[in-house]
């Protein structure tokens, strides 16, 4: 009996206002992507963000104690960040 291959892709369709399609098409064109690729990547990124926001972070009691101690302790300057904050922005006058 011949085996059928499992589908690796599943169709997804949606109805969008013409203005939304035009915006998506313009953005996709600017990225050099197809509408499908652009929308798929945007949807997957949005889904990943939601899942990461709701994912519980698990750590040992000792790890949590170290984490809270680091947050409660005095701030430690990071030289790269200090330099970045002190740097004049390109649009600021000299």
From TrEMBL:
Keywords: DNA-binding, Repressor, Toxin-antitoxin system, Transcription, Transcription regulation
Lineage top rank: taxon: Bacteria
Alphabetical list of InterPro entries matching this protein: Ribbon_hlx_hlx, TacA_1-like
Keyword Protease annotated: no
Recorded family membership: Belongs to the TacA antitoxin family.
Record protein name field: DUF1778 domain-containing protein
């Amino acid at each position: 009996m011949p085996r059928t291959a499992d589908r690796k892709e599943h169709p997804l369709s949606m109805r969008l206002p013409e203005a939304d399609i035009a915006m998506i098409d313009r953005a996709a064109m600017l990225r050099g992507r197809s509408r499908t690729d652009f929308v798929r990547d945007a949807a997957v990124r949005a889904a990943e963000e939601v899942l990461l926001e709701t994912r519980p972070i698990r750590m040992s009691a000792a790890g949590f104690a170290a984490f809270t101690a680091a947050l409660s302790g005095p701030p430690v300057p990071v030289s790269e960040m200090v330099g970045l904050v002190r740097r004049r922005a390109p649009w600021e006058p000299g």
